Amino acid sequence: MVYKYLTNDIIKKIKECRKRFPLKEQCIIPTLHQILEKYRDIPFQALEELAHYLDVPLSDIEGIVSFYDMFRYPKKGAKNHIRICRNLPCHLANYQRILEDIKEITGADIGKPNKMWYIELVECIGSCGIAPAFLINNDLYDGSKIKSKEQLEEILKSYITEEADEHQRQDTKAT
Question: Which CATH number fits domain 80-170: 3.40.50.620, 3.40.50.300, 3.30.450.20, 3.40.30.10?
Answer without folding.
Answer: 3.40.30.10
